[in-house]
């Protein structure tokens, strides 16, 4: 995949309506700080076009990045941001669920999970929301540079098995999982191949 142009075209807040797009969309979900914006920058081949922060809760809107005038990468707000007020958390949840169910152009959803840790209840809930909306989540195991290469498969297996055990909806499906690092860009070719397949 060749990235010719990127443009942050639309930003949706809690009260905005989900835009009706004709170009296909691929969305990125995951808990706050897991690395959604970093992955989107990696795919776009831009160092810091999407705002990245070590403080969780950076992306609080739905951001539509137009790529090559041919599709959108959609950066969803992170969940599980511990210090956010309960009311705000509910609004984010509703905003994400509403997006998953109303976007007509959505083709695939990537669910990002930190490769180091067992998926949380929130991760599994998001997995089930995505599944309930009719998509099979593609799992991106982020921050792969934080563990030894020899531990990669073990961690992927741990993530897969935790989702299978805790999920109400995902126990049967075969999960696609890709280990990714924003530092080394490991996994990027596999993600490009997948995007081409999804958008074909
Ligand atoms: N080592 C390492 N750090 C990463 C990686 N991906 C993201 N980070 C770091 O993790 C922090 C959060 O990254 P973001 O991309 O802003 O995370 P996000 O999921 O968009 O977070 P919110 O917008 O708050 O939902 C930043 O300090 C990043 O530099 C990675 O693959 N490896
Ligand atoms: Mg972000």
Defining traits:
200 residues; alpha/beta; Rossmann fold; seven-stranded mixed sheet; 5 helices; 21% strand; binds guanosine-5'-triphosphate; binds magnesium ion
Explained architecture:
- There is one protein chain.
- By secondary structure, this protein is of the alpha/beta class.
- The chain has a single domain (6-199), classed as P-loop containing nucleotide triphosphate hydrolases (Rossmann fold, 3-Layer(aba) Sandwich).
- The protein has helices at 36-44, 86-102, 121-132, 152-166, 188-199; strands at 6-12, 25-30, 62-67, 71-75, 106-114, 138-142, 176-179.
- It has a 7-stranded mixed β-sheet, with helices on both faces.
- β3 (62-67) and β4 form a beta hairpin.
- The relative contact order is 0.18.
- Magnesium ion binds at residues 36-37, 58-59, 75.
What's this entry about, in short?
This protein has 200 residues and is α/β, with parallel strands linked by helices. The protein has helices spanning 36-44, 86-102, 121-132, 152-166, 188-199, and strands at residues 6-12, 25-30, 62-67, 71-75, 106-114, 138-142, 176-179.
Number of strands: 7
Total DSSP helices = 5
Number of domains: 1
The biggest beta sheet reads: 7 strands, mixed
Structural class of the secondary elements? Answer: alpha/beta
| Helix residue percentage | 25-40%
Order of helices and strands: EEHEEHEHEHEH
User: Under the CATH scheme, which architecture would be assigned?
Assistant: 3-Layer(aba) Sandwich
CATH level 3 topology: Rossmann fold
Mean pLDDT: 91
* Bound chemical compounds: guanosine-5'-triphosphate, magnesium ion
